[in-house]
């Protein structure tokens, strides 16, 4: 297991391409889901210095807060509510350039300006979402979508 991250400077693509093998090393041999989600959150937060990075996990008809890095967050989100609930309902990654313009946005923090939410699949079902918030408008794009989808695909032992 890796003990430290090597923070890469450069383009967003270069940063992700440096980070993914490090995340794989963090996950290698670890069977505890909570530990793995926590380390993914920490690695992404450390590399990109985003406002908030974390997971919500499906429990019955709600998303429940899981491991995260950043300020305190909403604990439960109904399917279809906000960006997280919308991603879960639609089964797709949602990129929101300005959360104030997203219908039904849940404001866990007024500092959040843009967001990307990536569903986490297991055996064809969504079991959770990776939620990333930035204090900057239009922070996320198709590059983030591509690589964050790869990262959630690395999660073992769901």
Q: Which keywords apply here?
A:
158 residues; alpha+beta; globular
Question: Outline of this structure?
Answer:
The chain is of the alpha+beta class and 158 residues long. It has helices spanning 12-27, 33-48, 82-90, 142-152; strands at residues 52-59, 62-69, 76-78, 94-96, 114-122, 125-134. The protein has one domain: Beta-Lactamase, CATH 3.30.450.40.
What do you see in this structure?
The chain is of the alpha+beta class and 158 residues long. It has a single domain (12-152), classed as Beta-Lactamase. It has four helices and six strands. Strands 3-2-1-6-5-4 form a six-stranded antiparallel β-sheet, with helices on both faces. Helix 1 (12-27) packs parallel to helix 4 (142-152). The model has no long low-confidence stretch (mean pLDDT 93).
Topology:
Elements: H1 12-27, H2 33-48, E1 52-59, E2 62-69, E3 76-78, H3 82-90, E4 94-96, E5 114-122, E6 125-134, H4 142-152
| Low-confidence residue ranges | none
* Class of secondary structure makeup: alpha+beta
Output the CATH topology.
Answer: Beta-Lactamase
Give average pLDDT, whole number: 93
CATH architectural type: 2-Layer Sandwich
Give the CATH level 1 class. Alpha Beta
- Assign an overall shape: globular
User: CATH H level: which superfamily?
Assistant: GAF domain
Report the end-to-end length measured between terminal Cα atoms: 19 Å
For the largest beta-sheet, the strand count, sense and barrel status come to: 6 strands, antiparallel
User: Helicity range of the residues?
Assistant: 25-40%
Name the beta content range.
25-35%
Number of helices: 4
Strand order within the widest sheet?
Answer: 3-2-1-6-5-4
Number of domains: 1
How many strands appear in the DSSP assignment?
6
User: N-to-C SSE series?
Assistant: HHEEEHEEEH
User: Radius of gyration over alpha carbons?
Assistant: 15 Å
